[in-house]
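Subject: Re: docking follow-up (S-adenosylmethionine)

Dear J.,

Thanks for your patience while I sorted out the input files. As discussed at Tuesday's group meeting, I've set up the holo structure prediction with S-adenosylmethionine included as the bound ligand rather than trying to dock it afterwards. The sequence and the ligand SMILES I used are pasted below, so you can double-check that they match what you have on your end before we go further.
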Amino acid sequence: MYVLESRRHLTIPTHLPHALLERPGHPPVLQIYSAKVFPLRKLQNIYPGRIRRITLRSSSPFQLRIGRRLLITSDHRIVSSRNRSIPRLKIRAGPAFGSGEHATTHLCLRYLTQSLLQYTKSSPTVLDLGCGSGILALACAKLGVQALGWDLDPTAIQEAQRNAKVNRLTSRILFQTKDALRAPLPKADLIVANLYDSLLLHLLPRLEKHRKTGTTIILSGILKGQEIAVIRTARKLGWKLQRRGRLARWHCLQFQP
Ligand SMILES: C[S@@+](CC[C@H](N)C(=O)[O-])C[C@H]1O[C@@H](n2cnc3c(N)ncnc32)[C@H](O)[C@@H]1O
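The structure tokens for the complex came back this morning:
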């Protein structure tokens, strides 16, 4: 994953995740994330002198336990004997966002796994908008659920399909290159969207028919301070805030009709 940093305003291509990081006493820093360096270099050419740096962030092997239900790891060899009995999902730190290490992903995994527990009689369907590596949809499939993942980046979809094969989950999951803000959204019991706040604000009005049919939505990728606008917009559209959580400076919101 490449990260571009700038202290100045830039016009960001819509498909690139980004965040404005603010620390008291420091000027805000804009970070733009990309699996490939090329789109960031392009921005560097458009805005000469405005980019502080572009860095490659490689991650060391890691494991993340989501309660007793799921273990996500980049390398099976580091799983301790204590955790070997927990269902495991292998996700490599590849070219798509979603290794599990980021707070936004972590919060979604927690909320998704807890929400799935409420479906005792029937098996729910899950729609993952902005699936990146496929980690969220794959976690649901690992827990026995049918899942569909969309991303507008074809590289992310290739990576998600690769992860589905590695984890032998292809029968329960489908990944498609689609724009969540344009393509007609299929029915689902649960929708998770780890995008950023401006995309979520555009997405919410598109979920009207899902609200009417009782879908639960989990929205993530929301920086501290941005959650207010998301909650306000969702409430105006008739959603009820069911749960909210924070990890580092990131918020995750769960709504029900
Ligand atoms: C922050 S990453 C989330 C990845 C993964 N779901 C996770 O939770 O770790 C956001 C993803 O959304 C994708 N994306 C951005 N805009 C989108 C859109 N309009 N439709 C579908 N995917 C989009 C990006 O390509 C990126 O892979």
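A couple of observations from a first look. The two ends are 36 Å apart (CA to CA). The chain has two domains: 2-56, 98-256.

Let me know if you'd like me to rerun anything.

Best regards,
T.
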